[in-house]
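Researcher: I'm preparing a figure for a lab meeting and need a structural model of a single chain. I don't have an experimental structure, so a prediction will have to do for now. The sequence is pasted below. Please return the structure as tokens so I can convert it later.
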Amino acid sequence: MNEQPASIDAILASIRARVTGSEAAPEPVQPPPEPDIMPLAAITLPPDVTAMTLDTLIRQMLGPHIKAWLDAHMPEIVEKIAREEIRRMTGKL
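Model: Understood. Here is the structure written out token by token.
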């Protein structure tokens, strides 16, 4: 029972064939490839995870990713905001 469900295109082709009365079998449609999903075993969790709230756990897991993103984008963000503020104050730039 591990059979993949038919794609919507295959189902529609089958319905069209029945409605129009054509006996030609629809071409089999290849299912899309499985997405790459990180296995749960690959996720590293802190050892005291059972004593944590979900909020704390998510903060600890996302913290390094958010820091990396901010390190990469913060100079650009600050420069844009500074230019807008100077433009607003002086009407120039």
